[in-house]
Amino acid sequence: MAQGPQGPRALIDDEDVIPFTKTFRTLESTSHYDAFSDVFDNEPPDCIKFFGHSLSEADYSYFQSIFDHVDLYGGTTTLMFLYRPNGRYDGSDLYLKVTKLINKYGDTLDNKDHGRNLLHKLILENRLSIKRVY
After folding, report:
1. CA pseudo-torsion sign 67, 111, 114, 41
2. For the chain, where are the alpha helices, taking DSSP H only?
């Protein structure tokens, strides 16, 4: 039986494919601990440290959920992106990846002026950093 071309959304909705999606695996693996909002009793954390994320397009919905929860623009939560250099990786690409991530999130804000200056605002408020882990 021949099928027409399927877009990415059709594949994600396919029950045979769902167990292999990152979101499904995350749901499955997080069922043993409290939800993000429960951990902080509805108070946003002072700092969120990210380590070991590729910051790729596939991870974006994960970051968007976190940024929405802490009200990244209006809140006070600091974001710290950590990396460990090794023989093949020196972390130099992380600055570009973090910039793209924050700018992409800024595009989703209702106030487009806030979205355009989000990265600058976080830097000025000392709420964004990239640090090497030894």
Report:
1. negative
2. 8-13, 22-29, 36-39, 60-69, 94-107, 112-124
Q: Distances in Å between the alpha carbon of 78 and those of 1, 5, 99?
A: 53, 43, 15
CA 102 to chain CA centroid, nearest Å: 9
**If we measure between CA atoms, which residue out of 21, 18, 10, 72 comes closest to residue 47?**
72
123-134 mean pLDDT: 94
- Judged against a pLDDT cut of 60, whether residue 16 lies above it is answered with yes
pTM of full prediction above 0.85: no
Mean pLDDT calculated for residue range 84-105: 90
